[in-house]
Amino acid sequence: MAIRLVIFDFDGTLADSFPWFLDVFDAVAERFDFRKLDRSNIEALRHLDARELMRRHGVPLWKVPMIAAHARTLQGKDLHRIKLFDGMAAVLDHLAGQGVEIAVVTSNARTNVEAVLGPSAQRVGHLACGSSLFGKVAKFRTVMKAAGVRPEETLAIGDEVRDIDAAGACGIVAGAVTWGYAAPARLATERPDHLFRTPAEISALFGD
């Protein structure tokens, strides 16, 4: 069945924010009293999913909403440092040209997302922001209902294990990108329906 709706994650999928995340991590850790980043072992950390990363750094679940809100505020002050990945604006243009509906579901703030998207924001028909760290399932269902499409007609594309898990929980086709936060090898072990190694591979799924 043809895909009629593509739901994108934002940070690490559309937006190249991982370097910024690394730069602010220790300051956020100090503010909220959890372990700072082991910079000698970044690649190993990329093999952990979100819950594993939280356990490694001693982050209790109850602190996550406060940490996320603070991170959104910090990023809002540093938007000049965050750009779309090369090729992603062209992907959004291509999908829109093929008549595919586009959504963005993210825990980030709407103002941050729209600022980084720039002119590409006009391609996004559904923007669901401020989701909790593990709250994408509900957001996915809300977006599908608004778009009037079924799960099997929907592709969710993210860069973390939790994105794949959320897609699976909704019966959505799962896509993962290798240029974001999680290590490609870890993503591959989760067996997404599509593992995209370049933005052009997303466009190719929808023809010329």
Q: What is the ordering of alpha helices and beta strands? A: EHHHHHEHEHEHEHEH
Low-confidence segments, ≥5 residues, pLDDT <50? none
CATH class of the largest domain: Alpha Beta
The percent range for helix content is: 40-55%
Please state the overall shape, judged from the principal axes of the Cα atoms. Answer: globular
Give the biggest sheet: 6 strands, parallel
What portion of residues belong to β-strands? Answer: 5-15%
Question: How far is it from the N-terminal to the C-terminal residue, by CA?
Answer: 18 Å
Looking at the chains present, what oligomeric state does this protein adopt? single chain
Note the total helix count.
Answer: 10
What would the average pLDDT be, to the nearest integer? 93
CATH topology of the largest domain: Rossmann fold
* CATH architectural group of the largest domain: 3-Layer(aba) Sandwich
For the largest sheet, list the strands in their spatial order: 3-2-1-4-5-6
- Classify the secondary structure makeup into a structural class: alpha/beta
How many separate domains? 2
User: Superfamily at the CATH H level of the largest domain?
Assistant: HAD superfamily/HAD-like
Rg estimate, integer Å: 16 Å
